Amino acid sequence: MSIKNVALVGASGHLGPSILKAFKASSTLTPFVINRKSSKSVYPGTNVITVPDDLNVSELAKLFNEHAIDAVVTAIAGSLVDEQRKFIDAAFQSNVKRVIPADFGSCDSADELTNQILPLMDGKRGVREYLISLQERDREGREKLTWTSLVTGHFFDWGLGSELLKFDVKNRKVYVLDGGDIYFSNSTLDFIADATVRVLERPKETANKLLYVHSHHVTQNQITEVLEKVTGDKFEKIPQDSQKLLEVARPKMLEGDFDAREEVVAVHGIVASDWADRETFANDLLGLKLQGLEEVVREVVKAVG
Questions:
Q1: 16 with 79: CB under 8 angstroms?
Q2: For the residues 189-209, what does the mean pLDDT come to?
Q3: Which of 66, 128, 143, 275 is 20 to 30 A (C-alpha) from 183?
Q4: Which of 108, 193, 199, 110 is nearest to 146 (CA)?
Q5: Which H/E stretch holds residue 36?
Q6: What whole-number distance in Å separates Cα of residue 145 and Cα of residue 110?
Q7: Beta-sheet strand order (sheet of 184-187)
Q8: What span, in angstroms and rounded, lies between the C-alpha atoms of 5 and 29?
């Protein structure tokens, strides 16, 4: 199996621009951006496949074949389950060989407790299980459809600047969960993009696997120490109990409160997202190296101001 032409869904989101940049820099991949007909997004110098707003599966499959698409990468919100399934069905009906679903992100959708706490993760698991149900199905002489899920932990650079990691960098505060010495996995946007390219460059080794990666394996206290070094300021440490936070936020989340859902993701993504001992931890498989903490922190501080 070889993969050349790659269609990216969600090129304008948090993660999509980094993946598109990495695809363009690759010497082996030719990227295409999926864009709905009514979308106002533009992608200069990029191959664009305009698709119907209703994501008609037959039309998507036809477009995939017309552009000889080998792989579809979905970098949209994991909650968009129906949209993902349409792209998967179109991939199955066409000549697409690999699908990477929107499993990127903070928490582990393969963990039962996580799925109980966060219905969003259960939706991601459902998409992956749907892909598993298709992987052995006959495609009338075509190669079987394969998939790879990448679980990355919190988006580190974006999350540090946006308070997802419980840091208020601008106001020099950190909300310390359970003492601040819990190790958690997280990945910068560029690292995730690089990992995605490497998955596609290794189609045989990564086929039909749930893979865990991280660019940083750190604690809140370690991040705080580096932030204080970089800024020259002391950060106010505000202790918080993760269980109490979840007890307050989770009922609100279940009632549809978006901010409460973000709080649950933020907290659980720190206290229950350590990939270091996962059986399918894939940094070595993909040839990925940990990134320097201080270098990334300096970039975030510079951006936040």
A1: no
A2: 97
A3: 128
A4: 199
A5: strand 30-36
A6: 21
A7: 154-155, 184-187, 216-218
A8: 6
- For residue 11, give every residue at least 6 positions away whose Cβ sits within 8 Å of its Cβ, in sequence order, or none: 17, 19, 20, 33, 34, 35, 41, 43, 75
Q: Tell me if 238 sits within 8 A of 172, measured CB to CB.
A: no
**CB of 175 closer than 8 Å to CB of 127:** no
Number of Cβ within a 10 Å radius of residue 5: 16
Contact present, 4 and 19 (Cβ < 8 Å)? no
Query: Does position 305 have pLDDT exceeding 80, yes or no?
Result: no
Q: Within a 10 A sphere around the Cβ of 192, how many other Cβ atoms? A: 24
Among candidate residues 119, 84, 78, 110, the one with its CA nearest the CA of residue 209: 110
Q: Provide the β-strand partners of residue 210.
A: 149
Mean pLDDT, residues 89-103 taken together: 97
Q: Are 55 and 86 in contact (CB under 8 A)?
A: yes
d(CA 105, CA 77): 10
From residue 267, alpha-carbon distances to 108, 127, 168, 271, 273 in Å are 13, 24, 15, 6, 10
Nearest 5 degrees, angle CA 16-CA 195-CA 99? 65
pTM for this predicted structure: 0.95
pLDDT in tens, 2-19: 999 999 999 998 999 999
The H-assigned helical ranges of 53-188 are 57-66, 81-93, 112-117, 119-134, 156-162
Domains and CATH numbers, the chain: 5-152+189-212 (3.40.50.720), 155-184+216-273+289-304 (3.90.25.10)
